[in-house]
Amino acid sequence: MEDFHRPRKHSLTLNGHRTSVSLEDPFWRAFINISKRREMAINELAAEIDARRGIDCGLASAIRLYVLESVNEQLNNQT
C-alpha cells in the first residue's frame, strides 16, 4: 500500500502567479489524469478549481475534493 500520509509539494501557475500545493501522490496522479481526460493543462484546471473554491477552503483541499467528485461521478456512470 502506498504512503498516503506524506504529501509532496507540486508547483503550479495560476493566472500568471506561481504557487505550490502539497498533495499526496495518489491525488496528484488522479489530478493529472483528470486534466488529460479533459484535455486541459494542469495549470488551467487548477485555476478553474481555484476560481470555484470558497474562501474557507485551501487550494490543496479543493483539488482533493475535485478529484473525489470526479471519481464518484465516474463510479456513478458505471452503474
Tally of DSSP helical segments? 3
Regarding quaternary structure, what we see is single chain
Distance between the termini: 27 Å
What is the CA-based Rg, rounded? 13 Å
Number of domains: 1
Fraction of residues in β-strands: 15-25%
Series of H and E elements: EEHHH
Instruction: Tell me the number of strands.
Output: 2
State the major sheet: 2 strands, antiparallel
> How do the strands line up in the largest sheet?
1-2
Helix and strand composition category: alpha+beta
Helical content band? 55-70%
pLDDT < 50 stretches: none
Principal-axes shape call? globular
The overall average pLDDT, rounded, is 91
Protein traits:
single chain, two-stranded antiparallel ribbon, alpha+beta, 3 helices, 56% helix, 79 residues, 2 strands
Molecular structure report:
- It is a single chain.
- This protein has one domain.
- The chain is built from three helices and two strands; from the N terminus they run E-E-H-H-H.
- The protein starts with 7 loop residues before the first strand and ends with a helix.
- The protein has helices spanning 25-37, 42-52, 59-78; strands spanning 8-14, 17-23.
- A hairpin with a 2-residue loop joins strand 1 (8-14) and strand 2.
- The model has no long low-confidence stretch (mean pLDDT 91).
- It has a two-stranded antiparallel sheet with strand order 1-2.
- The protein is α+β, with helices and mostly antiparallel strands.
